[in-house]
């Protein structure tokens, strides 16, 4: 069965026309020492038969950041497939007024160290940052980078 996720990619446009996106560094021991390719759109898995993609994206945003998603009009960028077959539907919203400084990151548990029999808790993400689209392309996991290209196309087409 294909894993399906949905996420929200807030963006903002600076006075000089630079477009930035809010991205999250993945938490846990595997990602702690990595930077490039270790960031993600705030997203999570959902069952498309039981929940609408935008509802799931909003729920996951709240769960992962402990914040309400930005107010505004959401647009679906599209559904992007990873080489693994996983699919993520991405929504964008103008996040110009959004402040993520009060984020309280959700946690997950896993056996750590491996094969130790001990369980430890880790944050789902350990930080969020506004970064320009060029830097975001370097930071995001490979399967999510096409969403940035699509966002860039939409912003250019809007003439902003």
Automatic annotation (TrEMBL):
One GO BP annotation of this record: ATP biosynthetic process
Family matches, as CDD domains: NUDIX_Hydrolase
Gene3D superfamilies for this protein: Nucleoside Triphosphate Pyrophosphohydrolase
Residues in Nudix hydrolase domain copies: 1-153
Example GO molecular function: bis(5'-nucleosyl)-tetraphosphatase (asymmetrical) activity
PROSITE patterns, per database record: NUDIX
Pfam families for this protein: NUDIX
SUPFAM superfamilies: Nudix
Protein name per UniProt: DNA mismatch repair protein MutT
Organism of origin: Microbacterium imperiale
